[in-house]
Design a protein that fits this description.
The complex is a heterodimer of chains A (about 325) and B (about 280). In chain A, about 50% of the residues lie in helices and about 15% in strands. Chain A is an alpha/beta fold. Chain A contains 14 helices and eight strands. Chain A has two domains: about 50 residues; about 260 residues, Alpha-Beta Complex (2-enoyl-CoA Hydratase, Chain A, domain 1), CATH 3.90.226. In chain A, strands 1, 2, 3, 4, 5, 6, 7 and 8 form an eight-stranded mixed beta sheet that branches. By secondary structure, chain B is of the alpha/beta class. Chain B folds into two domains: about 50 residues, no CATH class; about 220 residues, 2-enoyl-CoA Hydratase, Chain A, domain 1 (Alpha-Beta Complex). Helices cover about 35% and strands about 15% of the residues of chain B. Chain B contains ten helices and nine strands. In chain B, the strands form two sheets. A seven-stranded mixed beta sheet of chain B has the order 3-4-5-6-7-8-9, sandwiched between helices. In chain B, strands 1-2 form a two-stranded antiparallel sheet. The longest helix of chain B has 18 residues. Classes of the chains: A alpha/beta (about 325), B alpha/beta (about 280). Chains A and B meet through α7, α8, α9, α10 and α11 of A and α5, α6, α7 and α8 of B.
Chain lengths: ~325, ~280
């Protein structure tokens, strides 16, 4: 049984009907089989139609879909010989960030990403992918190994944001994020970032200074969550904001891969299988692997001095204003 | 009408304080005579709370009189997302411009501090909460580049709620941009000093503000990444008494020192005399 989002209901009904027919027919009744084929085609069209006009809020829900592939899944599907590394060497190990050394299509790489966790128990253990300062410090420590051993760095972004808590503030959440931004500009090895789900504000950007910033088709990347933005900007006295305001905020913030490509914030959109990454892990990983390999090949041929200069220029030129 | 009925209208009129003559301290809640506060560099004479001050007040407090030469004064936002919540962003900008007499939330320029030439960038909380959008990021970056070109110390005064929502991701990436230029600046041998004033949060604290070689805070200023309300809602616990104050950050090793407003300039001069001694113009 799949987990369906509200706007998928028409297609969900159809797919449940197909399942039922399949069980009844058991592959023998030719009449039912052709009926199933017809319905499957209809379901595909319906799904394609729904997914071709997703609103930013619907994309937000897909980006957070409980079955969406996570960093751990991409490591399994795309990498070999993964050696997980732990700890920031200063305070502790943050399970909201996962990282280590691996082999990607015969190239040794460093891989670091947010990990939200799958089961309830694991989600709690990984703090729903919301890192503490030690998570960011661990991330940069592992990335530094990439520089030392001349391995490109791949980072995967998937977080609601940096964790807002007492310990996080005590141990310098702001400093930890700032330091990652700072250090990633000096990192003398290629860096590729892929936003695979939710790119939540500074807690996402702290892994996102890269030579190439890519986004999956239905992922989002935002300065603040639509809910957070709505609560601040759409709140009238004494009324609570709800889905309607979340929709307005997610429209206004321009958080989709398509918007951000237009705004020049990201370099490429990686297409997802029909119905979203969670419908076909393997297909998604294949699609991502191809794009990663292409950029990795380009970046590995670029001399490091030029690479760093271009990384600087890429971010230096971001922003829109009137100079007069 | 019953004789005992309270007339709400006249009661509220009675307690109304004459506009602008008195102010209430944000920290100790005392009602203080405004002139007294202003004479005291906008510091509460009762509890030493440092009131928020405008960028121009801050600049005149820190630099040698008449030495500030502003750069990029006219740069302004063009509302790149055409953002509209309950009020269009363009209108919010216009309001802020009228209120502060500034085009944007940061004022940058070259100045002398105790005879030392420096580049200075000062955020103004009065302009949309000192939030960082494209213009703040760009002006900060230009100021830092100028400091590199001229081999000058760089001083930034932060007072900000964080990134500006109304410019979406264009605001968020200013965190990366300002950190990038600081990474370059730090290859030189000049100091980058940041002064954190009340409040310094979010995208500003998590970028150039916390990257200072030397970080100074004003007493009792609130400094952090996430706002206290968000934290309280998340962890459903009461926060410790002095949570996210300058004193709390000093205790936790996040800043170098807390300096009273009246001693800020002298402190800067002492640091400059040790770190930028050769650059002084006689």
């Amino acid at each position: 049984m799949h987990y369906y989002l509200d706007f998928e209901r028409p297609v969900a009904e159809l797919e449940n009907k197909i399942e039922e027919l399949k069980r009844l027919a058991d592959g023998r009744d030719m009449n039912i089989n052709s009926e199933i084929k017809k319905l499957e085609k209809k379901a595909r069209h319906l799904r394609a139609d729904i997914f071709s006009r997703l609103t930013p809020w619907q994309k937000t829900l897909i980006a957070r879909h409980p079955e969406r592939p996570h960093t751990i899944d991409y490591i399994k599907l795309l990498m070999e010989d993964f050696i997980e590394l732990h700890g920031d060497r200063k305070f502790s190990d943050d399970p909201a960030i996962i990282g280590g050394l691996a082999r990607f299509q015969d190239i040794p790489v460093v891989i670091v990403g947010h990990e939200k966790g799958r089961s309830t128990k694991e989600r709690i253990q990984r703090n729903f992918g919301q890192p503490h300062p030690e998570g960011y410090r661990k991330a940069i420590r592992i990335m530094r190994l990439g520089e030392r051993f001349r391995m490109p760095v791949i980072t995967l972004i998937d977080t609601p944001g940096a964790y807002p808590g007492i310990g996080a503030e005590e141990r310098g959440q702001a400093e930890a994020i700032a330091n990652n931004l700072f250090e990633m500009f000096n990192l003398r090895t290629p860096i590729i970032t892929v936003v695979i789900g939710e790119g939540g504000s500074g807690g996402a950007l702290a892994l996102g200074v890269a030579d190439r910033v890519l986004m999956l088709e239905h992922s989002i990347y935002s300065v603040i969550s639509p809910e957070g933005c709505a609560a601040i900007l759409w709140k009238k006295d004494n009324t609570n904001v709800g889905q309607q305001e979340y929709e307005k905020a997610s429209d206004a913030l321009r958080i989709t891969a398509q918007d951000l490509y237009e705004l020049g914030i990201i370099d490429e959109i990686i297409p997802e299988p029909l119905g979203g990454a969670h419908r076909d892990y393997k297909g998604m990983a294949e699609s991502m692997g191809k794009v990663l390999k292409k950029h990795l090949d380009q970046l590995r041929e670029t001399p490091l001095d030029i690479l760093l200069e271009e990384r600087y220029k890429k971010f230096r030129t971001m922003g829109v204003f009137k100079k007069e | 009408m019953a004789w005992f009925r309270r007339d709400k209208g006249s009661a509220s009129k009675k307690v109304k304080v004459p506009e602008g003559l008195w102010i209430k301290c944000n920290s100790c809640r005392e009602i203080i005579y405004r002139k007294e506060v202003e004479k005291n560099l906008k510091v509460c004479p009762k509890c030493n709370y440092h009131f928020r001050i405008s960028a121009s007040e801050r600049i005149s407090l820190l630099v040698d009189s008449g030495s500030f030469v502003e750069i990029e004064k006219e740069m302004e936002s063009i509302d790149p997302l055409n953002f509209k919540d309950l009020m269009p962003y363009k209108e919010r900008l216009k309001d802020a411009q009228q209120k502060t007499n500034m085009k944007e939330a940061i004022s940058c320029g070259k100045a002398l501090i105790g005879g030392y030439p420096v580049m200075l960038a000062v955020l103004d909380f009065g302009f949309m909460g000192g939030s960082m959008g494209s213009v703040v990021g760009e002006k900060f970056t230009i100021t830092t580049e100028r400091a590199m070109d001229e081999e000058l110390p760089l001083i930034a005064v932060a007072s900000s709620g964080g990134a500006r929502m109304q410019e979406g991701m264009l605001s968020l990436v200013q965190m990366a941009k300002t950190s990038a230029v600081i990474a370059r600046y730090k290859e030189r041998h000049m100091p980058y000093i940041t002064i954190l004033a009340d409040p310094t949060f979010g995208g500003v604290s998590a970028s150039f503000a916390m990257l200072g070689d030397i970080i100074i805070a004003e007493p009792k200023s609130l400094i952090g990444f996430a706002g206290a309300r968000v934290i309280e809602q998340t962890i459903k616990q009461q926060l410790p008494e002095n949570f996210q104050t300058a004193e709390f950050l000093l205790d936790h090793g996040m800043i170098d020192m807390i300096v009273d407003r009246k001693e800020l300039k002298q402190t800067l001069i002492r640091i400059l005399s040790l770190t930028a001694g050769s650059s002084k113009t006689e």
